[in-house]
Structures are given as structure tokens and as C-alpha cells.
Design a protein that fits this description.
This protein is mostly helical and 95 residues long. It contains five helices and no strands.
């Protein structure tokens, strides 16, 4: 992590949830070009990216649900890790 970041910026990086498009890009389910197209269309229509992906037939509902599940599990792992870290720091401060 870059040292020139403020504590707030570091916290934001640590706790930021991965967006669905990022998850799908990392999994190789979307290309960068497809993601850019989806983002432009989403800005225009205000439709969720998942709905746009399904309407274009780029992925099945099952594949989309699996990606959403992975996104949720990743978010939960971050929450669990941060909770454990806070509890550990709190217990050390109380010693």
C-alpha cells in the first residue's frame, strides 16, 4: 500500500467492496471492452449490470448468481478479518 495515503484513504482501500464487473473481469467472464460497454449502458439506463449482462446473453443466470455469491463471500471475508483485527486491538488496549 502506498505510504503517501491518508489513514482514511488506506481504510477505504481495505474496506472497499469489489464491484460485480471487477469480479467478472477477474474471472475472465467479461472482457474489458464488454465491461466498458456495460458501464456506459448502465449510466444511460440506470439498469443493474447483472440485468444488462443477462439481456445481452453474455452469461447465464446461474453463472451470474455464482459471481454474485463470490462477491458476497469476498465482502464477508473482509468484514470478518476487520472485525477480528478490531477485537484484537481492543483487547490489547485493555491490557
Amino acid at each position: 500500500m502506498p505510504e503517501n495515503l491518508s489513514e482514511d484513504q488506506k481504510w477505504e482501500l481495505l474496506t472497499r467492496s469489489e464491484k460485480l464487473g471487477e469480479v467478472l473481469l477477474k474471472q475472465g467472464k467479461l472482457t474489458l471492452g464488454q465491461l466498458e460497454e456495460l458501464i456506459k449502458e448502465q449510466e444511460r439506463t440506470e439498469s443493474p449490470i447483472g440485468e444488462l449482462i443477462l439481456s445481452k446473453g453474455w452469461m447465464t443466470r446461474q453463472e451470474l448468481l455464482a459471481a454474485l455469491d463470490l462477491q458476497h463471500k469476498t465482502d464477508q471475508a473482509i468484514i470478518d478479518s476487520l472485525t477480528e483485527m478490531i477485537q484484537r486491538n481492543t483487547s490489547e488496549e485493555n491490557k
